[in-house]
Write a structure and sequence with these properties.
Structural class: mainly alpha
Low-confidence stretches: none
Number of domains: 1
Number of helices: 10
Strand content: under 5%
Order of helices and strands: HHHHHHHHHH
Radius of gyration: 16 Å
Mean pLDDT: 95
């Protein structure tokens, strides 16, 4: 099976799932083995860094933090730093996550992510979220013209460590899911993949 076929099969299997904001164990250790076996032979230079970033991202969709971290910490690019930052956010190391988001700068997926999140928030009744600690920053984000990765880290930290609001949890997971899918698709395109990685829903 080719790289693209194997990658598409794993991506289809994993990306329907919305990863936890704070995973405690991988979903499926066999899937980690399949991701690890994806060979990057034939990739060179920048295309290789994006192929490795794809593997790092797939591990995060499998809620498998350590293998993702092992890969992303060796990718010294804004996209490697992006997966690295998401991993630390999911790990609960929020200050470290912000450090890696500073290393990202303004990532090419941020504009599309801002648009998609704004659309999601406009369709969501934010009054269902009981805590103003979440609701007020989300209202601010819904009116913002850009993606703010640091505010999103703060929102996840508040939800995980203080608020524990059910509606807030689902909304933040949906936002994280949008972010991870956009970043995975971007990595696929930059690795030289043809077409799209993820089937439209």
């Amino acid at each position: 099976m080719t790289w693209t076929d194997s990658l598409r099969r794993l991506a289809a299997q994993l990306t329907d799932h919305k990863p936890s904001l704070y995973p405690t164990e991988e979903l499926d250790d066999l899937t980690d083995i399949k991701i690890a076996k994806l060979s990057t032979n034939g990739f060179e230079g920048e295309r290789l860094t994006f192929a490795l970033a794809l593997k790092s991202g797939l591990h995060l969709f499998n809620e498998s933090l350590d293998p993702s971290h092992d890969i992303s910490q060796e990718i010294h690019t804004p996209t490697g730093s992006y997966w690295h930052g998401i991993m630390h956010r999911m790990e609960g190391d929020y200050g470290n996550a912000k450090y890696w988001f500073r290393m990202v700068g303004h990532h090419p997926v941020y504009d599309a992510l801002a648009d998609q999140v704004r659309g999601l928030l406009k369709e969501t009744d934010l009054q269902r979220i009981g805590s103003a600690l979440l609701r007020e920053p989300l209202e601010k984000l819904s009116n913002a013209g850009r993606w703010d990765p640091y505010l999103f880290v703060d929102l996840v930290e508040r939800q995980v460590t203080q608020v524990r609001d059910d509606a807030g949890e689902e909304l933040l997971k949906e936002m994280q899911h949008l972010e991870m899918k956009l970043l995975l698709e971007y990595c696929y395109a930059q690795s030289g993949g043809g077409g799209t990685l993820l089937e439209p829903r």
